[in-house]
Design brief:
about 65% helix, about 0% strand, globular, mainly alpha
């Protein structure tokens, strides 16, 4: 329907705006290409529109388009916004995440914000390992919708596809090795769960 398409359009524009200035680490393409490819996979490979009512599908597609906006807020267009009191590090990340959260809520509403937050890893605090944060995030997704887990898995697949372009083959292999336990955790969790 027109209203569902308008929701997706808003998410598309917001994602494009928030990822302005970002490039993909592996291939130098505009970052926005990544959430767009993940979202297109939901439509084509997972056939989300066959399984969910249109309004609900539009919410998941919107969250997919926005899945990296909160985590990556400091690297996107928000880097051009002035910080109060010139904050740095964790304070800066939390400040930019807050702005992004407010934008998503104001433009797309609570339900899409909740789905986007479910897809967002919490900020890394001093002394925390990235892999530990990611593992806890995956564990939290095991109790969520299969569509959120599909988005997370497709996100990883798209990242791994880009690794073939990374000139440092050892770094690419290490990236996969670090991600592998959490990918397996997500897949093992799928064995024990019915489709919603």
């Amino acid at each position: 329907s027109k209203s569902s398409l308008q929701v997706i359009d808003k998410a598309l524009v917001l994602s494009l705006l928030l990822h302005t200035f970002q490039k993909r680490f592996f291939n130098g393409l505009p970052y926005f290409v990544h959430p767009l490819l993940v979202t297109l996979e939901l439509i084509t490979s997972y056939e989300i529109l066959k399984f969910l009512p249109e309004k609900e599908a539009a919410e998941y597609l919107s969250a997919s388009l926005l899945h990296d906006t909160i985590e990556d807020a400091p690297e996107g267009i928000l880097q051009t916004w002035p910080l109060p009191s010139g904050g740095k590090g964790e304070e800066t990340e939390i400040y930019y995440r807050g702005i992004t959260i407010s934008l998503i809520k104001d433009i797309l509403g609570e339900s899409i914000l909740a789905k986007t937050l479910d897809l967002t890893e919490p900020p890394k605090m001093a002394g925390q390992e990235t892999i530990e944060i990611e593992e806890n995030h995956v564990k939290s997704l095991l109790n969520k919708s299969v569509w959120l887990r599909n988005i997370k898995f497709t996100n990883w697949l798209d990242n791994i596809k880009d690794l073939k372009l990374w000139p440092d083959r050892n770094a690419a292999a290490n990236f996969i090795i670090k991600k592998f336990p959490n990918i397996m955790l997500l897949l093992r969790g799928e064995q024990d769960r019915p489709l919603d």
